Amino acid sequence: MSKPTADATDRPDVISRTGPRRSESARLAVLHAADDLLVERGFAGLTIEGIAQRAGVAKQTIYRWWKSKVDILLDTLADDARDALQWRIPEGDTAAEEDLKAHLRRVADFFQDPAGQVLQALVGHAQLDEKTAAALRSGFLREQRERDIAGLRALLTRSLHVTVGDQTAGRLVDLSFGPLYYRALVFGEPIDEEVVDATARAVLMLARESAA
Amino acid sequence: MSKPTADATDRPDVISRTGPRRSESARLAVLHAADDLLVERGFAGLTIEGIAQRAGVAKQTIYRWWKSKVDILLDTLADDARDALQWRIPEGDTAAEEDLKAHLRRVADFFQDPAGQVLQALVGHAQLDEKTAAALRSGFLREQRERDIAGLRALLTRSLHVTVGDQTAGRLVDLSFGPLYYRALVFGEPIDEEVVDATARAVLMLARESAA
């Protein structure tokens, strides 16, 4: 059961994008430039002009691929945050509490990374602009939430032998990440080890109670 | 020990502000106008010009009192949010879980109010602008956190007969409000009853465990 059989059919979620492929290096240069400049200059100081200059591409190249700086930042999120926020539950019989703490620690550290600062800037801008809010939800948050629910469920099933319903899994995800986002977005400070530990303990207590 | 002796010395934190007092009605008109216009037009559409017009005061009157629209919004927070977010723990022997749920329900509802939308806009803008972040922390968040820690401690002591240290109280406050801010800021939706209930249960389980 630990080694799923290779699936011979095409997975619809990994079908490659159609369109010109010769500019992949330009695309990556733009994403990295946007990321770097956001950290250096902040959201207000980030311009298409500045990104083009740093990436060494023409402005019209950028406008061919993206409508706005928010669009560019959403693409850097899709590339970087998805990987950084992935649940990496070790194989075998490990302890639920240690695994959950390790995952939450990674999420807490993520807020100090450039990719985490992109997410913070986009969540910030989403409070001020409905279109950014909608794009962030459909372009990143909705899928990230599905991955988080699946990841937490896998952890609970394997280490705690606990199965929870959809609704409960959603609440446990809110309880897992809420305190980390609260510290990062509201107080803007690095997240203490104690916050991570207390959060993981509370999540597992609620999971055990919900399953009982 | 439950009744501290009244302190006869002046408390430095309640010294009243000095300065002209004749314009209190103008001050309130400006704060209400800013609040209303933020809800109607959003943060980007909020201007000093628009606020002056709606409040029926001259622009220079506004600039005499405030440096920017962020400054005005911070003042509306101080007036409105402080009251809306106050802990109202009933006297007598009531249940900790019901009291905590009732408080968290009020905080969840607050995000749907104009004052809650002011807080969301300021937290959003704080992600994009360091000066707003610093002003929001020193002008509101720091004191609100002290009130929250005191309120939660009072609830735990009275209903649960549990005393927790400073560090633990801070963690319990993060766990209480984190999921609500996460739902409101990241997902931008009204907060379900289930989120409030699950959060309150988890907080009290962790409080009991921390005290044991």
UniProtKB/TrEMBL annotation, chains A, B:
HTH tetR-type domain segment(s): 24-84
Signal peptide segment: none
Keyword Calcium: no
InterPro entries membership: Homeodomain-like_sf, HTH-type_TetR-like_transc_reg, HTH_TetR, Tet_transcr_reg_TetR-rel_C_sf, TetR_C
Chain spans, region Disordered: 1-21
Organism (species): Nocardiopsis gilva YIM 90087
UniProt GO molecular function: DNA-binding transcription factor activity; transcription cis-regulatory region binding
Name of the protein this chain belongs to: TetR family transcriptional regulator
Chain residues forming the annotated DNA-binding region: 47-66
Phylogenetic classification of the source organism: Bacteria, Bacillati, Actinomycetota, Actinomycetes, Streptosporangiales
Keywords: DNA-binding, Transcription, Transcription regulation
PANTHER family attached to this UniProt entry: HTH-TYPE TRANSCRIPTIONAL REGULATOR RUTR, TETR-FAMILY TRANSCRIPTIONAL REGULATOR
Domain of life from the UniProt record: Bacteria
Keyword Transcription set for record: yes
